[in-house]
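Lab notebook page, bench 4
Experiment: in silico fold of construct C2
Operator: M.H.
Input chain length: 135 residues
Purpose: comparison with the prior construct
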Amino acid sequence: MKTRPVIVGVAAVAINVMTAIAAAGPQSEGAALYSRYCSVCHQPNGEGIAGVFPPLRGNGVVNKADPTTHIEVVLDGVHGRRVSGFVYAAAMSGFADTLSDGQIAKILNYERGAWGNHGRPVAPKEVAAVRAAKR
């Protein structure tokens, strides 16, 4: 009976894991970043917390063709903005000092494609341009 060297088995496992990650794509990276940085307030389902944190599901800023405001909110945070007729008093901290342009783009793309949202994808260079314009 022939046996395969252990290294072949480990290589096969590594290839399977890399294939699974590649198949999941950037959307899963965005979901992981969203889960880490956003879901406590906006909830895993994007519904927010009534009267405290606004929903992202069906949110006009998230679904708008021009992503500039969405980028600005994630970079700079927001406080006291009206969403669907309700003013949310809770402040959202910005992530300009915490996350890279690529990470912010991944979060935005997750939010813009999750929960039935239909905003167009955002490229890291768009985030960089908005960030640079604020300096």
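Observations: The longest helix spans residues 6-37. The chain has six helices and four strands.
Next step: discuss at group meeting.
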